[in-house]
Specification:
Layout lengths: L3 E4 L2 E4 L4 E7 L5 E7 L6 E7 L4 E3 L7 E6 L4 E6 L8 E8 L8 E2 L3 E6 L1
C-alpha cells in the first residue's frame, strides 16, 4: 500500500502560477497528476516515470511541467499561465507500471483559477 499526500493547491488569478507537490510513502515507478472538474470525468494531466520519462495532456503542454525527486519520493507539478478552465481538484496518482491494474490515489487538492 502506498500513501500519497498532496499539497500546494489554492486560489490564483488567471495567468498566474501554482506548484503542487505529492509525497509518496515509498518509491514507486510511475507517478502523476489527474484532475476532475465539477460534473466532468477525471482526466490525465501528466505522468512521470522513475527514470524521468514524461507524458502530458495536450491541454497543458507548454504550460505545466511535471518533475520528481526520487530521493524524497515526491512528484511536483509546476503550473504556469493558468486559466479558469484549469480549475479542478487535482489528484496525485501512483502505480507500479502503466499496465498495473492497481492505482494509488491521494485525497486531492483544489485549484481555483479566477478570471
Amino acid at each position: 500500500q502506498v500513501q500519497l499526500v498532496e499539497s500546494g493547491g489554492g486560489l490564483v488569478q488567471a495567468g498566474g502560477s501554482l506548484r503542487l507537490s505529492c509525497a509518496a510513502s515509498s518509491t514507486i515507478n510511475v507517478m502523476g497528476w489527474y484532475r476532475q472538474a465539477p460534473g466532468k470525468r477525471r482526466e490525465l494531466v501528466a505522468t512521470i516515470t522513475i527514470g524521468g520519462s514524461t507524458n502530458y495532456a495536450d491541454s497543458v503542454k507548454g504550460r505545466f511541467t511535471i518533475s520528481r525527486d526520487n530521493a524524497k519520493n515526491t512528484v511536483y507539478l509546476q503550473m504556469n499561465s493558468l486559466t479558469p478552465e484549469d480549475t479542478s481538484v487535482y489528484y496525485c496518482n501512483a502505480k507500479i507500471a502503466f499496465s498495473s491494474p492497481t492505482d494509488y490515489w491521494g485525497k486531492g487538492t483544489l485549484v481555483t483559477v479566477s478570471s
